[in-house]
Specification:
The structure is a homodimer. Chain A is α+β, with helices and mostly antiparallel strands and about 450 residues long. Chain A has helices at about 1-10, 20-40, 45-55, 75-85, 100-115, 120-140, 145, 150-165, 170-185, 195-220, 235, 245, 270-280, 300-305, 310-315, 320-330, 345-350, 395-410, 415-425, 435-440, 440-445, and strands spanning about 60-65, 70, 90-95, 260, 290-295, 355-360, 365-375, 380-385. In chain A, α1 (about 1-10) packs across α9 (about 170-185), α3 runs antiparallel to α4 (about 75-85) and α4 packs antiparallel against α5. The N and C termini of chain A lie far apart (about 55 Å). Chains A, B: Belongs to the PrpD family.
Chain lengths: ~450, ~450
């Protein structure tokens, strides 16, 4: 009854039932999501996806954020979801290394635009979708992730289906089927990390989940227990799991509150190392540096062990490159992860001075750094909670700065400010059309 | 190098390199595929998929077989692939319980129509796609299937990508990426068997594989070793595997030659039991029957153990119902699997007289039946090779009869005959347009 109970929980949780702090965190999550989606909207992989929609003569139904093109509902879910993960700069549920908005936000915005829904309806479905996928992620983490599944897409497809199903007003039977159709499409191998196919994952999860809900609405039948069945999601995709976590304390505990926002444009596992190297940046001149030793949680080398990245994208999977730019530039924003920088001799020279030591006693948001200087002295520093983690979160002002730094360059300051204002006051709008109109004004900017 | 070697094998195998018997079997596979696709083309689940394409205002690019509607390339792959698996009457590679045409045929026909390709080009890509997916299936069977994966979709997505990539003339680097994009989308849980979502699997695999090739053609990057990487397809989706099987004796052994065609409209595991009960049908009057005992391979109960199916579709997953209709009607065609028949008291009475005994010594195409009669006598019979198995294959004449029995009702005899003639002489046509024109004549029939 795990699947059915989850569905009944979602359908019995009205907008009014959701605590204000969850609504606020939902709006901030959407703000962060739209920022990273627009920030990456001119990336070559988005051009390629749009070229495919031209090949398919896709209908111009709804918006691609940051672009002038319109595409159909399913392609919008795919493209906007992909865009939001390109910079590896999106939100993270640290307990499961999950990026919850990626598969859900593009679905509620596409359906919202298509059906002319209100801000409240969108926020409601978004929160339920995120909550469902994160609880499923809790149930299968860590064995599922360790086996090799990209948990954002493999569980995100459920969140997308819940969000779409709520907006399409599916009844309990059909929403259960939607989860069945979604769950059998669960996918995403960590092997593709470091290529364009990683950001494709949340987009495709959004698309698969939306398709599931569209089909279920027509009466397309599926499993009634996709999560818990013998050959269902958990048993097949997670060597160890605890499905009790899916429904425990529903309505009291909110996983979405544990969603954090990244100050840096790479995987969250690198953030403590970046904090540590930014600390050194302020204290050590590159000319005086002999070497840097970083003691890290085991995931750092497992996920970002590339020693000689060849592209800016690969740089995000290299703790060596990342530590070097953080030390040299005092930052690790999208502007640091370029194809030029990974070939910059000055940076490569620093990379060679960085040594990584795995220390199983360190948590995922911790790191210990020791810089040895040429004069024989050394500086040590321990990061206890990386910036952006639950215990050291980004403040709203910092989120707004991040948003404008991503959006202004593509949309101009006025549109960027208005978009941020819209999302932070989302529930006050009776139709999300105002956001769409702002996106369309891009056309005026680019003239 | 497994993935790269497979791609290089495919790209270096010209049409001329393929033995004539493989080409013939390829054409027969396409004939069988089109028959089952058109046969199920009026099914409610196809109506539902087409309703979704209306919601999406999908472009009218290519044909849905057996229907008047046209949809875009990706939706055609999805819908035609789904249609072909609805009756559970499609082809089967018995070594892996794989239905190879399902994910591949809809891709080559959609691209063939869209690009105006020749019969030879289509047959070439179809054979390579089937060969690739079956070899991958060999490498992960049985652990992959036993874990709960529907091997037709989970490995079929590779076949679809290879076939599409060959037709789109991808070079080696891009075809490797296409496999990366396809492989990370591998999906399909056996939990949904018995619902509309099972036939959705080969269709979605076709769609995912085609999308992968379309994206790779634009330069969308992905893994270069999706099959063999630590967190790639085999390690994540198959507890045990032998990837040597992917490339062994390429060009000498042809897995497609082991593709068999079903005489009955249900899963292949039931076919020996049906043969056995058809044998009894000819010898025992229902009035004289006391009980039937079927000794079967373990997969029979695992896959088709439903004791009281409630719908015709569920009947296909019930060895009890299937044995009963085979005994009463002497057949197990699509006409036996109806919602009326599963509620027919006369059939249910026979169902109750059927006992299934699992015997691990029996192969998948074997069964031993014992009928006990009311007069105390009994009849026993052993099926050594079920009809449709490699050792007892359907002949071309039987395939043609199956095709016309599926197609005539929807297209009329003349179109049905012309379609069959076209497919059996596929390589002689410089453009597959003739098949498309035949399909469009459906419109005239339905007036």
């Amino acid at each position: 009854m795990i699947t059915k109970t989850l569905v009944d929980h979602c359908l019995s949780t009205s907008y009014e039932h959701i605590p204000d702090e969850v609504k606020l965190h939902g709006k901030r999550s959407l703000l962060n999501w739209l920022g990273v989606a627009i920030g990456a909207s001119q990336h070559p992989s988005i051009d390629m996806l749009l070229e495919v929609t031209k090949d398919l003569q896709t209908a111009e139904q709804v918006s691609v954020f940051g672009r002038e093109e319109k595409v159909d509902l399913l392609m919008a879910a795919l493209i906007n979801g992909t865009s939001s993960h390109i910079f590896d700069y999106d939100d993270t549920h640290l307990d499961t290394i999950h990026h919850p908005s990626g598969p859900v936000a593009p679905v509620v915005l596409a359906l919202g635009e298509h059906l002319g829904l209100s801000g409240e309806e969108i926020l409601h479905a978004f929160i339920l979708g995120c909550e469902a996928e994160l609880r499923i992620a809790n149930a299968v983490y860590p064995s599922h992730y360790q086996l090799g599944w990209h948990i954002t897409s493999s569980t995100g497809v459920f969140g997308a289906a819940i969000a779409a199903g709520v907006l399409l007003k599916l009844d309990s039977e059909k929403l259960v089927w939607a989860l069945g159709i979604a769950g059998t499409q669960s996918f995403g191998l960590r092997e593709v990390f470091g290529t364009m196919t990683k950001p494709f994952h949340p987009g495709k999860a959004a698309q698969n989940g939306l398709l599931a809900a569209l089909l279920a609405k027509k009466g397309f039948t599926s499993s009634e227990k996709i999560l818990e069945a013998k050959r269902g999601f958990a048993n097949v995709l997670a060597p160890e799991h605890d499905l009790e976590k899916v429904n425990v304390n529903w309505g009291e505990d909110w996983e979405l509150l544990k969603n954090s926002f990244k100050p840096y444009a790479c995987g969250i596992v690198l953030h403590p190392s970046i904090d540590a190297c930014v600390y050194l940046h302020k204290r050590v001149s590159p000319d005086h540096l002999e070497s840097i030793e970083l003691k890290v949680n085991p995931y750092v080398l497992e996920l970002t062990g590339k020693e000689t990245p060849q592209t800016g994208l690969e740089g995000k999977f290299s703790v060596y490159f990342t530590a070097a730019i953080a030390f040299l530039d005092g930052n690790a924003s999208e502007k640091q992860y370029t194809d030029e920088k990974v070939k910059d001799e000055k940076i490569i020279e620093i990379q060679k001075k960085i040594r990584i030591v795995v220390d199983e006693s360190l948590k995922e948001d911790e790191v210990e750094v020791t810089a040895l200087l040429k004069d024989g002295s050394n500086i040590t520093h321990k990061v206890l909670h990386a910036k952006g983690s639950i215990d050291n979160p980004m403040q709203e002002e910092e989120l707004l700065t991040k948003f404008s730094s991503l959006v202004e360059e593509h949309m101009g300051k006025s549109i960027s400010d208005n978009m941020a204002h819209f999302l932070l006051n989302l529930e006050q709008y009776s139709n999300i059309n105002e956001l769409i109109v702002l996106n369309q004004q891009k056309k005026l900017i680019s003239k």
